[in-house]
């Protein structure tokens, strides 16, 4: 019978695997849809970022998220979970000797819905308020599952056959963990939070199309003032500011990854005025589109996985 792996041995093994799976800084896509590796060989100052609904597990180094006046620390002892697409600010502690190394797993809505129904049928939960995001201690079962995921992602055949099941297990562990009740409440469709979450998912996928707050409110079966109130409770910002941030983050991504000019990127994300785009971009990121693109290309060298398969999507946008 094999002996359980110690916490320190598990962290060291996870870090070693990520170093090999993510040879370059930035975000490296894995061979499995929705899973990406994170690596930073240097500290990164506080900067705006956009995360998809995801689970982020760090093996080495430390990251901090700032949202709504709260600080969320995720490191080798704590993981981060987000229920909705959320712009917030992050900073990273890392060095060449001890880089920040982690894995990000996009939360799949269909998997969540299935697991929530099964969990609540078999183990009814007390009503808890929904949680937009949280950082919570990483227990042994979740840590062991994360290690197994990294091990199978090191082999193309095992990645294709075994990784989806381990991703499902990790999602289950988070849903039934210390703060999983809040995440389940946030991801179900009932109540005000669920209707706002649905609106956020629409904005996240249709940001380049005309988006009218009155229409979004109507689709959520709310008046415009009520929609504003509940929207701000979830995101700490207004619908218009959220839509603007979503477009600007995606434009930044297009300029960095695809080499688009600021004018072209602004059109792609729904801006009609290039000058307005430039003003709002600088207001959010603190630099012009040209300067920000140059900075990010240096810091976030996006490296495709050597085992990459078609239709791989990125779990994080930063």
Describe this structure in words.
By secondary structure, the chain is an alpha+beta fold. Helix content is 49%, strand content 20%. The chain contains twelve helices and eleven strands. The protein has helices spanning 7-21, 109-122, 140-153, 156-175, 180-187, 191-205, 213-219, 224-235, 239-258, 262-268, 274-285, 289-299; strands spanning 26-29, 35-40, 44-51, 54-60, 62-67, 70-75, 78-82, 86-93, 100-106, 133-137, 316-317. Strand 5 and strand 6 form a beta hairpin.
* Total DSSP helices: 12
How confident overall, as mean pLDDT? 87
The major sheet is characterized as: 6 strands, antiparallel
Q: What separation lies between the terminal Cα atoms?
A: 43 Å
Give me the count of strands. 11
Across the major sheet, the strand order is: 1-2-9-4-7-10
User: What portion of residues belong to β-strands?
Assistant: 15-25%
List low-confidence stretches.
Answer: 302-318
Q: Tell the overall outline.
A: globular
Give a quick summary of the entry:
With 318 residues, this protein is an alpha+beta fold. It has helices at 7-21, 109-122, 140-153, 156-175, 180-187, 191-205, 213-219, 224-235, 239-258, 262-268, 274-285, 289-299, and strands at 26-29, 35-40, 44-51, 54-60, 62-67, 70-75, 78-82, 86-93, 100-106, 133-137, 316-317.
Which features would summarize this protein structure in a list?
318 residues; disordered C terminus; alpha+beta; 6-stranded antiparallel β-sheet; 12 helices; globular; 5-stranded antiparallel β-sheet
